């Protein structure tokens, strides 16, 4: 009898679970359409004319400040390549005129504040984080780092030695070799293609950092962003007292950077390295942010090589098992022409087979329209992932400021999703035929040619790179 009762109870329990599972079946569940509105920031002008973007968020007692500076390695003299990188690191690392580097480190650490600086290829950034209660003092230090750096001689020499050591080890990673050599090939004859050498780093003096700083880090050459737990009137007052009180000396005169030269001549570049796996990089020059095919290119990226379901990934990794990582991407230029690059790593005895597959897949997307299923998945994925670019108040306000910094249309972010949604199969085919040019590819292969499945010369005349 007891067994019968237990059986009945168990049956009722299973029936209830099954009924609940049926009700909770995700295939039958309905959800409202995903809705996301970009939070609005406030743009104000400081008393010296510097734009500042503000976004309040009271969730945590933390404030983040950033300065976007129009500078970068494109302004490096050829004989001093690496100057912008060293200036960017030593802006913060070298202390201020009132505090030696160690004093600055200790005071920031005591307040649990942070100030960092870095210069890239076409931009520079100085960032700051602070507890709200320490905001006034941290903001003073941020302004001192920005406008009154010390460039301590000892710290500068340490930074230079570290750069030289990184240069000595630059050929250790075959992937880094492939990336670097393709960039050099695509941007040959342009500052974007300049790579620091031991000679150019040794030619840089502390006075060069000071001169580079004076020329570029000025209140009329930057934009400020502020996000977090602050009072509006107080932060404007504090910004005016620190950043807004600095007056530019003379008129701003940024050096003129030439346009990237067009070079559609194909090339096969080989770097010998005794490794079991070949590194493959190929590409050509791409587009700028003002190209009318920008949105079609974003969708094309996803389908061709920018997702786990891309054509390159499905065929080369999933179907053939010839690579763990494979993909392609248009790096859209913001100030200069960008690039298209495809990349993978594969075993040495499949090197030419994989190169053929990559170029064949790229040619294939130029030959006929993509499927409706591919288009639908790509557009939905891009639109639904859009909100992940706005995961914090700091990222939101920075995105808004970057529109002005790089000269985007003011409605670029607001209309991005609808413009992606409007892309058609015909748009993709036109963009692919216009912007993918396999006959002009620069191909870089890093590996052991003796182990390749066939000679690299079967593709074209091979130029062997001498790694230094």
Structural summary, described in words:
There is one protein chain. A six-stranded mixed beta sheet has the order 1-2-6-3-5-4, with helices on both faces. The protein has a six-stranded mixed beta sheet with strand order 9-10-8-11-7-12, with helices on both faces. It is 42% helix and 17% strand. The protein is built from 16 helices and twelve strands. Helix 2 packs across helix 8 and helix 10 crosses helix 13. The protein has two domains: 42-242, Metalloenzyme, LuxS/M16 peptidase-like (Cytochrome Bc1 Complex, Chain A, domain 1); 267-392 and 406-465, Cytochrome Bc1 Complex, Chain A, domain 1, CATH 3.30.830. The protein is of the alpha+beta class.
Task: Provide a short characterization of the protein structure.
This protein is of the alpha+beta class.
Identify the CATH architecture of the largest domain.
Answer: 2-Layer Sandwich
Q: Specify the CATH class of the largest domain.
A: Alpha Beta
Through-space gap between termini = 86 Å
Question: What coarse outline follows from CA principal-axis ratios?
Answer: globular
How much helicity do the residues have?
40-55%
The total count of strands amounts to: 12
Look at the structure and name the CATH superfamily of the largest domain: Metalloenzyme, LuxS/M16 peptidase-like
Question: How large, in whole angstroms, is the Cα Rg?
Answer: 27 Å
Give the helix/strand class.
alpha+beta
Mean pLDDT: 93
């Amino acid at each position: 009898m007891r067994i019968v009762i237990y059986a009945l109870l168990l049956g009722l329990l299973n029936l209830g679970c099954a009924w609940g599972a049926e009700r909770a079946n995700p295939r039958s569940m309905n959800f409202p359409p995903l809705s996301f509105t970009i939070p609005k920031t406030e743009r104000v002008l400081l008393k010296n004319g510097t734009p500042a973007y503000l976004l309040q968020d009271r969730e945590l007692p933390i404030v983040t400040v950033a300065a976007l500076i129009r500078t970068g390695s494109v302004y490096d003299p050829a004989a001093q390549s690496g100057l912008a990188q060293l200036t960017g690191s030593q802006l913060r690392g070298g202390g201020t005129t009132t505090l030696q580097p160690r004093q600055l480190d200790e005071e920031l650490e005591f307040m649990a504040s942070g100030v960092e600086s870095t210069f890239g290829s076409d931009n520079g950034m100085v960032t700051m984080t602070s507890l709200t209660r320490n905001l006034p003092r941290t903001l003073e230090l941020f302004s001192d780092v920005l406008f009154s750096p010390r460039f301590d001689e000892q710290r500068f020499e340490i930074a230079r030695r570290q750069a030289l050591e990184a240069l000595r080890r630059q050929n250790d990673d075959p992937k880094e070799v492939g990336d670097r050599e393709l960039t050099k090939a695509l941007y040959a004859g342009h500052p974007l293609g300049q790579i620091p050498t031991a000679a150019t780093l040794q030619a840089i003096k502390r006075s060069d950092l000071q001169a580079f700083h004076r020329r570029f880090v000025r209140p009329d050459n930057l934009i400020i962003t502020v996000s977090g737990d602050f009072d509006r009137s107080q932060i404007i007052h504090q910004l005016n007292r620190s950043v807004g009180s600095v007056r530019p000396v003379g008129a701003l005169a940024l050096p003129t950077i030439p346009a990237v030269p067009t070079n559609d001549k194909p090339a096969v570049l080989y770097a010998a390295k005794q490794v079991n796996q070949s590194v493959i990089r190929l590409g050509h020059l791409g587009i700028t942010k003002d190209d009318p095919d920008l949105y079609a290119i974003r969708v094309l990226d996803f389908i061709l090589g920018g997702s786990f379901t891309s054509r390159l990934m499905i065929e080369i990794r999933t179907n053939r098992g010839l690579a763990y990582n494979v993909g392609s991407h248009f790096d859209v230029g913001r100030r200069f022409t960008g690039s298209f690059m495809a990349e993978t790593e594969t075993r040495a005895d499949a090197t030419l087979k994989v190169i053929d597959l990559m170029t064949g897949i790229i040619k294939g997307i130029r030959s006929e329209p993509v499927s409706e299923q591919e288009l639908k998945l790509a557009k939905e994925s891009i639109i639904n992932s859009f909100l992940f670019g706005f995961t914090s108040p700091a990222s939101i306000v920075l995105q808004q400021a970057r529109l002005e910094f790089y000269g985007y249309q003011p409605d670029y972010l607001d209309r991005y999703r609808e413009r992606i949604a409007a892309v058609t199969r015909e748009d993709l085919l036109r963009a692919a035929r216009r912007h993918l040019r396999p006959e002009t590819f620069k191909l870089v292969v890093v590996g052991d040619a003796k182990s390749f499945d066939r000679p690299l010369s079967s593709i074209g005349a091979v130029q062997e790179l001498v790694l230094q």
